[in-house]
Design a protein that fits this description.
The complex is a heterodimer of chains A (212) and B (498).
Chain A: H1 2-35, H2 39-69, H3 77-104, H4 113-139, H5 141-170, H6 176-211
Helix pairs in contact in A: 1-2, 1-3, 1-4, 2-3, 3-6, 4-5, 4-6, 5-6
Chain B: H1 3-33, H2 39-57, H3 59-68, H4 74-93, H5 100-115, H6 121-152, H7 160-191, E1 203-205, E2 209-211, H8 213-244, H9 249-267, H10 269-277, H11 290-305, H12 312-342, E3 354-355, H13 358-366, E4 381-382, H14 385-395, H15 400-410, E5 412-416, H16 419-422, H17 433-441, E6 446-449, H18 450-458, H19 470-487
Antiparallel strand pairs in B: 1-2, 3-4, 5-6
Helix pairs in contact in B: 1-2, 1-4, 1-7, 1-8, 1-9, 2-7, 2-8, 3-6, 3-7, 4-5, 4-12, 5-12, 6-9, 6-11, 7-8, 7-9, 9-11
The chains are: A mainly alpha (212), B mainly alpha (498).
C-alpha cells in the first residue's frame, strides 16, 4: 500500500510535467496562428493554455500537500517543490504572454514573422529541456547535465534572436511607441527562456545535493 | 524475593535506562533526525527489538564479562552498575561520545582491584581487541557498502520517490536489526554483573515453558533500555544526532547497516558456529560498543565520500573517551565500593574459599609457575581474596597472569558425582552412551577443586581431549560446562576461615 501511494504520486509528478510540456507546445501553436492571422484558432489555443495552467496549478498543489503530509523525501522536498513551483512560473509566463497578444494585438511586421516563430521555438525548447532535466533529476541523475547544457544553448539562441528582432524593428521608420511595443513582446517571449534557465540553475544545485 | 533486591537492582535498571537514552541515536538517530521515520515509530520498533535481542541472544557476550570478574554479591553489583551509570551520564554531559561497554569493563576491574580478585587477562585482551577492531571493521564495511551503493543504486535509475521509500524501509529494517544487536550486545553490560548474584528463581509456566532466572533478569534489563529509548532517546537524538552526525538518509542507512554487521559478527553464536564449521577465522563474542561501531561506520562512509571531510577534532575526542570512560568508571566504582562496604556496611563480595593442594602445585608446576615459595601454604584455607593475594605476593613476585592461574586452580569449588543425574543431561548436547557410562563409573566421588574434578572425569580419555578442530573443541568445552554445572554443589558452609 505504501509503495502504491508513492507510485500514484510519481504518476502525478509526471502528469504535471506533461502539462508543462503541452503548455509550451500550445504556446508555439498560438504564436504561429497569430503570425498567420488565424485569430480564432489563436483564441482557441489561449483558452486551452488557460485550462492547462489551471490544471497544472491544482496538480502542483496536490503534489505539494502529499509531499508534506506524508513527509516524503524530507532531504530533497524543498528542492523538488522549488523546481515544480518555478516550472509553474514559466508556464504562467507562456499563458500571460499569449493573453497579452490577445489583449494588445501587437502589429508584427511581416519581415519579423520568421524571427518571432524562431524565438517562440527556441524559448519553448528551453522549457522542454528544463522539463526533461527535472524528469532526469527524479530518475536518471547522470542525464541532468546534458539537459542543463541544452537549456543554456537554447537560451543563448533566444537572446540572439531577440536582439535581431530589436535591431530590425529599431531601424525602421515606425513610431517609437510601436518599436517599444514590439520590444515588449520580444522581451516576454525571451522571459520564457530566462526563467527556464533559472529553473536549471536550481536544478544544478539540487543535483549536487542529491549526489552528496 | 527480598524487597532490598529491587533497591540494588535499581542501579542496573538506571544503567539500562541511560544506555537506552544514549544509544538510541546509534540505531535510529539518522532516520529520526532526517525525518524519514517518526520518533514514536522508531522508539516502538527499537524497544521491541532491544527486548528480544536481550532475552534471546544476550547470553553469548555475558560469558566474557563474567569471565572477567565474577561479582557475586548484589551490593557489589549495585556499586558497579551505579558507578558505570554515573560515569556514562557524566560523559554524556561533557559531550564525549559515551561507550557503556568500556565503562562497564572499567567498573568490573575497579571491583576486582578493590576486592583483591584477579582479572582474567585473556578475556580482557579479547575485549580490548574488539575495542580497536570494531570501529576499524565498521569503517571498512561503511566504506565498501557506500561505494557499492553509489555504483549500483544510483545507476539503477530508481525514481527519487521510490528510492525514498526503499531507504525508509531499509532504515526501519536495519534499525530493528541494530536494535536487536544493541540488546544482545549490551544486556551483558547492564545486567551481566547481576548474573552471579542470585536474584530470581526459575519460573515454570505449566510443565512446558521454563523461564530461567537469567532470562528474567535480561527481560527486566531489556525493558529498562526500551524505557530509556522512549523517555529520553529523542532528546539525545536531537542534540547528538544533529551536532555530530548530520548525514543524508541513504548515508544513514549505510552507516547503520555497517554498524549492524559489526555487532552481528561479534555477537552471533550461530555465525561463530558457521565460521568454525567452515574452518574460517571466527570473531570473539564480546560485548561491543555500538557507539564505537557507529562512529567507525561514519568515518568509513566519510572516507568514501570525501577523505578531507573527516573531522580530526571529533576523532581526538573519541580517542580520549576510550581512555576516560573506563578510568572514570573504575575510579567511581572503587570509591563507591569503599562507601558501601565501610559506611553502609554491605557485603560487596561473598567470601570464596581458596586452598592450595598438591594437585594445585603440580598443575602450577606444569605451567612453569614458581611454587617452592608457596609450599608452606599447602592445606591452608583462605576466605578472603585479599589475604590470599597478600600471602602469595609476600612470598613471590607473581605477575597478574600467574596470580589469576593460582586463584583459578586454588578456588574451592565442590563437586559430587551422582550417577542418577547423568540421565538428566540435556539432549541437545548429544552426550554419547560412552560419555554417560564414564560419568556413571565415578558415582559417589566428590572433589573440592575443579582441577581435581576435571582430572578425574576427563583425563586419559580421548573423547574429552581437545584437537585442532575448533568446532569440535567448542562442543567439547560446552559439554564440560554442562557436566560441571550438573555435579557442582553449593560451597556454602563448607569452608573455615584461616
Amino acid at each position: 500500500m505504501f509503495l502504491k501511494k508513492t507510485r500514484k504520486l510519481e504518476t502525478q509528478i509526471d502528469e504535471y510535467l506533461d502539462l508543462v510540456i503541452t503548455g509550451g507546445l500550445i504556446f508555439k501553436l498560438g504564436i504561429r496562428c497569430y503570425l498567420d492571422n488565424q485569430i480564432e484558432a489563436f483564441e482557441g489555443h489561449l483558452k486551452d493554455l488557460r485550462k492547462i495552467e489551471d490544471s497544472a496549478d491544482d496538480l502542483r498543489r496536490n503534489i505539494e500537500i502529499k509531499l508534506y503530509s506524508r513527509t516524503l523525501i524530507p532531504e530533497a522536498r524543498g528542492d523538488v517543490l522549488g523546481l515544480l513551483e518555478s516550472c509553474d512560473k514559466v508556464l504562467n509566463i507562456t499563458e500571460e504572454t499569449l493573453l497579452e497578444f490577445s489583449v494588445e494585438i501587437p502589429n508584427l511586421l511581416p519581415e519579423l514573422k520568421n524571427d518571432f516563430n524562431d524565438i517562440a521555438e527556441s524559448s519553448i525548447a528551453c522549457l522542454e529541456n528544463t522539463v526533461s532535466g527535472i524528469r532526469a533529476y527524479f530518475k536518471n541523475v547522470d542525464a541532468v547535465r546534458d539537459y542543463v547544457t541544452k537549456v543554456q544553448f537554447y537560451k543563448k539562441e533566444t537572446n540572439k534572436i531577440a536582439e535581431r528582432i530589436k535591431r530590425t524593428v529599431f531601424r525602421t521608420d515606425h513610431d517609437l511607441s510601436f518599436k517599444i511595443h514590439i520590444r515588449y513582446f520580444t522581451f516576454h517571449i525571451e522571459r520564457i527562456a530566462e526563467e527556464s534557465e533559472d529553473v536549471c540553475d536550481r536544478l544544478s544545485i539540487a543535483i549536487i545535493k542529491r549526489l552528496e | 524475593m527480598d524487597i532490598s533486591v529491587w533497591f540494588f537492582i535499581s542501579s542496573g535498571l538506571f544503567l539500562g535506562w541511560s544506555l537506552g537514552a544514549n544509544h538510541a541515536v546509534n540505531v535510529f538517530g539518522t532516520a529520526v533526525v532526517s525525518k524519514m521515520v517518526k520518533f514514536r515509530t522508531a522508539a516502538i520498533i527499537s524497544g521491541i527489538f532491544v527486548i528480544l535481542g536481550s532475552v534471546i541472544s544476550g547470553a553469548g557476550t555475558t560469558k566474557t564479562l563474567t569471565d572477567l570478574g565474577s561479582i557475586n554479591a548484589i551490593a557489589g553489583s549495585f556499586s558497579v552498575a551505579l558507578a558505570v551509570g554515573i560515569s556514562v551520564t557524566l560523559m554524556t554531559r561533557a559531550k564525549l561520545p559515551v561507550s557503556t561497554s568500556q565503562a562497564v569493563i572499567g567498573g568490573i576491574i575497579g571491583w576486582n582491584i578493590f576486592t583483591g580478585s584477579p582479572t582474567d587477562y585473556t578475556s580482557l585482551t579479547k575485549i580490548l581487541f574488539s575495542w580497536v577492531a570494531s570501529p576499524v571493521i565498521a569503517a571498512i564495511f561503511g566504506f565498501l557498502i557506500f561505494k557499492l551503493m553509489k555504483k549500483t543504486v544510483l545507476k539503477w535509475k530508481i525514481h527519487l520517490l521510490r528510492l525514498d521509500n526503499y531507504t525508509r524501509i531499509g532504515l526501519i529494517v536495519v534499525g530493528a536489526l541494530a536494535s536487536y544487536s544493541l540488546g544482545a550486545n549490551n544486556i551483558a553490560n547492564v545486567m551481566g554483573m547481576f548474573v552471579s548474584a542470585p536474584l530470581f528463581k526459575d519460573m515454570h509456566i505449566g510443565n512446558i515453558i521454563t523461564i530461567s532466572s537469567v532470562h528474567q533478569l535480561f527481560l527486566l534489563g531489556g525493558i529498562a533500555i526500551a524505557i530509556g529509548i522512549f523517555t529520553y532517546g529523542n532528546n539525545v537524538m536531537e542534540t547528538v544526532g544533529t551536532d555530530l552526525y548530520k548525514i543524508s538518509p541513504i548515508t544513514g542507512f549505510v552507516v547503520v547497516l555497517a554498524e549492524f554487521i559489526v555487532l552481528f559478527l561479534f555477537t552471533s553464536q550461530t555465525l561463530e558456529a558457521f565460521l568454525l564449521k567452515n574452518n574460517l577465522p571466527s570473531f570473539p563474542l564480546v560485548p561491543l560498543s555500538t557507539t564505537q561501531a557507529f562512529i567507525g561506520a561514519v568515518i568509513g562512509v566519510g572516507i568514501a565520500k570525501d577523505p578531507s571531510s573527516i573531522n580530526f577534532k571529533v576523532l581526538g575526542k573519541i580517542a580520549i573517551g576510550w581512555g576516560v570512560a573506563p578510568l572514570t568508571a573504575g575510579l567511581i566504582t572503587f570509591i563507591s565500593l569503599f562507601f558501601i562496604q565501610n559506611v553502609f556496611e554491605q557485603k560487596i563480595i561473598h567470601p570464596v574459599p581458596y586452598e592450595i593442594t598438591t594437585s594445585v602445585i603440580s598443575k602450577l608446576n606444569a605451567e612453569r609457575i614458581e611454587t617452592k615459595q608457596i609450599n608452606d601454604l599447602l592445606g591452608q584455607r583462605f576466605l578472603n581474596n585479599k589475604n590470599f593475594l597478600n600471602e602469595l605476593k609476600y612470598r613471590f613476585d607473581y605477575d597478574s597472569k600467574q596470580i589469576y592461574s593460582i586463584f583459578n586452580y586454588a578456588l574451592i569449588d565442590s563437586f559430587k558425582i551422582d550417577s542418577s543425574l547423568v540421565n538428566t543431561l540435556p539432549e541437545k548436547y548429544d552426550f554419547t552412551e560412552t560419555e554417560k557410562n564414564q560419568l556413571k563409573k565415578l558415582h559417589g566421588k566428590s572433589f573440592n577443586h575443579k582441577i581435581d574434578f576435571e582430572d578425574a572425569v576427563y583425563s586419559n580419555l580421548p573423547m574429552w581431549s581437545l584437537s585442532a578442530d575448533k568446532l569440535k573443541d567448542k562442543a567439547i568445552l560446552e559439554k564440560k560446562i554442562i557436566i560441571e554445572e550438573l555435579f557442582r554443589v553449593s560451597i556454602k558452609n563448607k569452608s573455615s576461615s584461616k
